Amino acid sequence: MNKNVIVKIREYASILVFGACLMVQSLVQAQEIDMLIKGGHVIDPKNKIDGIMDVAIKDGKIFRVAADIPASSAKKTVDAKGLYVSPGFIDMHVHVFAGTEEQSFTGFGITNGLGSVAPDDFTFRSGVTTVVDAGSSGWRNFNVFKRQTIDNSQTRVLAFISITGYGMLGTVHAQDTTDMNAVPTAFIMNEYPDIIVGIKAHHYRGNDFTPVYRAIAAGKITNKPIIVDFGSSTTKLSIKDLFLKHFRPGDIFTHTFSGSDMSEKNPGGRESIIDQNNKVKPFVFEAQKQGRIFDVGHGGGAFVWSTAINALKQGFYPNTISTDLYRSSRNAGMKDMANVMSKFLVMGMSIQDVILRSTWNPANVIQHTDLGHLSVGAEADVTVFNIKEGKFGYMDARGSVLNGNKKLEAELTLRAGKVAWDLNGISGPQWDDSSK
Amino acid sequence: MRTKKALISEFIRHLYVKIVLGITACLVLILIVATVQAQEIDILLKGGHVIDPKNNINSKMDVAIVADKIFRIAADIPASASKKTIDVSGLYVTPGIIDMHAHVFHGPDVNSISANSHGGLQADAFSFRAGVTTVVDAGSAGWRNFPYFKSQVIDRSQTRILAFLNVVGGGMVTRYDQQDVTDMNPEMNAYMITRLHPNILIGIKSAHYWGDFTSVDKAVESGKLANVPVIVDFGEHSPPNSIESLFMEHFRPGDIFTHTFSEHAISETTGGRESIVDVNTRKVKPFVFAAQKRGIIFDVGHGAGAFNFNQAIPAMRQGFLPNTISTDLYNLSMNAAMKDMSNVMSKFLAMGMGLQDVILRSTWNPAQVIKRPELGHLSVGSEADIAVFNLKKGNFGYMDIRRTKISGTEKLEAELTLRAGRVVWDLNGISAPEWQMPTSTN
After folding, report:
1. Residue A116 counted as domain residue
2. Which residues of B touch A333 (CB under 8 A)?
3. Average pLDDT for residues B375-391, to the nearest whole number?
4. pLDDT in tens, B195-213
5. Cβ–Cβ of A425/B442 closer than 8 Å?
């Protein structure tokens, strides 16, 4: 045989092998993305993304976010045209220590009781992938909470731990200053540093700052923030003192938009952030500037239109949007996270600002910077939502209604890359009518 | 001495005074009555389209509520007669929805299927927001743990909770417990129902049994003693048992087959539930029609694994409609294709069932099946459990348990739910006043 021919054959063969290699490689690439969310408007405040982008997910992680990722490179493509895509929402104020503790049936009943709800019942259907329990357990029963709820929920459940050892068993227990111990609280926090994000002080009726001091003491040992439900004292305690004297930067005031100042008849309770002329008190702006965190914590009684609307009009925005989901709020004005977020849209907050306060802001506040964004490599907690146009009504905790023309609705929720909620089946194939 | 004339005039004066006084008294009385009438209605649902299948109402009507009862239903009840009027024009008003297959024995036992476990959900978390006012727990508890279910859940829920008692004394704890024929005790079951809790326990559940007809027969025996129906989940027999035999030989009229539209891939070695639609011809098996005619009840019980369009759509096209629509709400179904009762009802709309038929199968039909004729309608005097729905128009998708979807143009959304005359859900605040900016106080 001619040598030249042999050389040619060798050349062709090597080209063929090279080509085959390329083909195999592209075949591998063709399947490398598990799910592609295509054509949606991505809002990822941390990464300053606000536009039409495709989001690729592989092995439960964010694989790529880019303008045009070909559908051929994905095993499954979800058409998100006309929808928004954001990091999974973080609801940083809920009560999810549901259980059957007899003592908890009285009072608030949030610790291992019926006052709490089960997280998965409410999260995914409103776009939430992470909740932070706000002090339903204390150091004495956190392990029960972990075993019973945290370890058995699809939702990522993190927790503020109550400064009261028994958690939130009821209003009587909340007065037991002998059970507010920073050291054991810090011990259990150090045992679960990835789950316990801070300390809660709450429902104290004394006319002093004892629970706040104790919580801060635990916060100093662990270098974690405290969150305070302030407002059960029988004489009014100064929130200015709370914010500027006692709080450290990063500490959190929740129930920010609860009612106006108490009457002369009822001098106690939670001091409002707005004064009698509907003006935000100057020290409130000052406190926020100095790093104090203002959380919504809507709840059954802690969100009043006049406080919120006046504050927003004067440029005071909460740092974090949250529900205070529990038995008494779920079927009332609060409803769920998507409803609370919609309220802020209706008050005029932009969708970008609403998403920031429901994703990256709370992630920072709870020192979980691994959450609340769509950076490559991050766990694929993703929410696809639509903003419905129409006539909607929104109730506050006092039962008055603000009308609006927008409503946020969770279409698709992914938790670690897995479909955890799909309202209209956008991730599923059309039924094949084989019976015809 | 007074003259006759004076006497007459005095008499006339007296008469005049009496008449004036009498008229005044009458007027005052009328006023009082009118005032009382003006306030006699507590809540008036005005201008909605009422669908009340039991009472053959399917038209625009007002619904008046006094205290916790239905007071009046009529075409035009004046708003002046009511303390509170809610404008429900453009919306549908129906009896509170009855979901007759749910699991709500919520508790901390993570190893249990649905007795005192995470498998059972908190009823109030799912009911009112879907228009449901009554749920029937489908056998999560047996006679041994029912008292605990009652004290822990039923007595502490706003939703009306009724229950099928599991034929197994320990309830629905593990797969193995469901096989324990020694714990299937008809006499104890009947005692628990007839002597202790006749107001809550409405039937017997047989489920997840692997063997012959023992579990069903023990349930029917319990049912005969207590005069209640049985409901059967026939899904785990290996090899599958004949549903024809179940319907025609073991069931009494009124007994209930649930998970009607499931389809299991069955071979000679794998078990499961025989389907009502032949998987090869896609025809409803003839004995299924005969069974329904005989009075056997077919319940949807959607769940996480028991609703397949390949069964439901051919069946409905061939004129086979389920008697009752229900969710089989539990932890695995809540976030999957099932979602909630209004979603399951909407799915039937999308498959072509009329709205009246959907409401019938979610109110008056289940009420009759569970022998609670006081529920599921808006008759005067009945407890005011009411759902107000918005029938949304648009493009909606509905999935089955294999996650294939059909498209629909309508979706039921619960706007307002009342339980015993109290507003327990108000999606858009239609029962509440509009917010006004307060004036500053100085």
Report:
1. yes
2. 429
3. 98
4. 999 999 999 999 999 999 9
5. no
